[in-house]
Amino acid sequence: MIIEAHDLKKTFTTRSRKGPQTVEAVRGVDLQVEKGQIFGVLGPNGAGKTTTIRMLATLIAPDAGTALIAGHDLLKEPAAVRRQLGYVSQAGGVEDTTSARAQIMMAAKIHAIPDPARATAEVLERFDLTEIADRPGRTLSGGQKRRVAIAIGLVHNPPLLFLDEPTTGLDPQNRANLWERIEQLREAGTSVLLSTHYLDEADVLCDRLMIVDHGQVVAEGTPAELKREVSGDVITLRVDDHARAAETLGPLARETRLDDDLLRVYVDDGEHTLPALLRALEEQGVKLSSIALDRSTLDDVFLAKTGRSLRDTGAAA
Amino acid sequence: MIRHTALFTGYELKKSFSNPVWPLFGILQPVLYLVMFAPLLKTMTPGGSTEEALRMFTPAAMMMIAVFGSLFSGFGLIAELRNGSLERYAVSPAWRPAIVLGRVAKDMIVLVCQAILVLVVAIAMGVRIGAVELVLVLLLMAATGLFASGLSQGLALTVRDENGMSQTLNLFMLPIMLLAGLFVPISFAPDWMKAIAPINPLYHAVEAGRALFAGRLADTSIPIAFAVFIGLAVLTTIWSMRSLRKIAG
Questions:
Q1: In which band, very low, low, confident or very high, does the pLDDT at A313 lie, cut at 50, 70 and 90?
Q2: Which of A27, A137, A172, B221 is buried most, with the most CB atoms less than 10 Å from its CB?
Q3: Bridge-partner residues for A11, per DSSP?
């Protein structure tokens, strides 16, 4: 285990004109990450993902709970923990006026690497940054900046890398590019803890993941396990009478769920259920305005566990 | 500890001098004051000569760059707070106070370079100062700059917002400037101003600077100024290091 955390809690108190307000950002999170794994923390904005990562990265002290990171106690030996970490925050931490090379070199020197110039050149090469290495940070594109941020976090070859929402704000092409690079980390044996509110990202990248909502873990497992739990396929219907449709389809489905004005019907085998489903609706005189058949996604897991769709929480899928 | 402080100092210095136009602009202001304001003061000084006016105004100009050059350096920290690089350094194995101390040290080094340039201009214009006095003036400037830089970093980490920071600085700058007798010596001021001026730490620095430029090494204002500014510099530096702890557990 590279991370073993138990019952982490953090409450923030903010002072406002209405008096102090407390926000329970993280309410008892357990987390186990095995060496070499890419572990995802999936959840909507405000679910406590960043707070969890910031606690594990020694940036904020948890109110309660314990954690062992790369064999060191988070609370008792923060300095030892920091030596084992690479940390890439949501903001990225790329400075505007300094070149990528100077920033990476500085990180290498702080970590007292024997040959900082060589380590810098290597990591620049590895992230295809050699050509833009001497340009100041502010002239880089969003995707380049992200790569510089990760290069800074990796120059000292840490066994564990924290990536807080690594692809937020990137266009699809840059996201796919970054995914590939994150997957290469697995081959290099680096353990990764990444937070995301993108379902597809968690699905594609993570060996294991946990879904968090309101500061609590609502589900944990491999992406396949989680999806299997919900069932195989989901048929999404737009009908004029939800109640009657749900009643009619009950016997055919493992579960039906109303998500805004959409009726989601979870079935084991969508292709073969579809004809029977259509017939049943016709017989009952339910008017159907649209229908779609999909494999169930992590959003269905989220919906099943929290009663809300991740899309409704403001996070794009 | 020392290695990390040196590392951050070097990094910040490289940043400052990667675009030498900005530190140059910083020096230009006091030089312009010397060139354009000292002649104006001539008519008000007892001797009535440009040398007299310069002897009175050069120490004021030097203290001015010491305080106002360094007071704004905290803005850089706010930018780094926002782009996440400060957080990144806080997670690194760097000795945390070095992150702030490196900046403060950079400010002092830039300050001494600026001071030497201002002195060169002043000497070219006819000001004379002894070697011991010169070293003491530079040391006093360094202590003043350390105080102002520490204050600025601490303020930046507490306010965390460029707008709030510039408003706060503006609020304090004018009274501090006028009550220090930077432009017009306090001896011209009415009694009530004379009475409250000693509350202003900068007043002591300017008085001591003038004493040093006048060659009055035994003047009591000199030990007072050193005591005040070394004390204040220690306080603000500790405060700025503490403030860093607040943003990063």
A1: low
A2: A137
A3: A24
Domain final residue, candidates A197, A223, A249? A223
Is residue A22 in a domain?
A: yes
Which residues fall within 8 angstroms of residue A232, CB to CB, at 6 or more apart?
A266, A267, A268, A269, A270, A295, A296
Determine which helix (DSSP H) or strand (DSSP E) holds B139, and give its type and residue range: helix B131-159
Cβ-Cβ contacts under 8 Å, B19 against chain A: 97
The helix (run of H) or strand (run of E) holding residue A145 is helix A142-154
Residue A75: closest C-alpha in chain B: B249
Comparing CA positions, the residue from B174, B137, B168 lying closest to residue B151 is B168
Q: Which residues 6+ apart lie within 8 Å of B13 measured at CB?
A: B106, B109, B110
pLDDT in tens, A121-164: 999 999 999 999 999 999 999 899 999 999 999 999 999 999 99
Instruction: Looking at the structure, tell me whether residues A16 and A135 fall in a common domain.
Output: yes
A97–B249 C-beta distance less than 8 A? no
Give the β-pairing of A64-69 and A38-42: unpaired
Residue A287 sits in a domain whose CATH number is 3.30.70.260
Query: Would you call B19 and A98 a contact, using CB atoms and an 8 Å cutoff?
Result: no
Do the domain assignments include residue A253? yes
Residues A164 and A251 in one domain: no
Domain that holds residue A193: 3-223
Q: ipTM, 2 decimals?
A: 0.85
* pTM recorded for the entire structure: 0.83
Residue A310: how many other CB atoms lie within 10 Å: 26
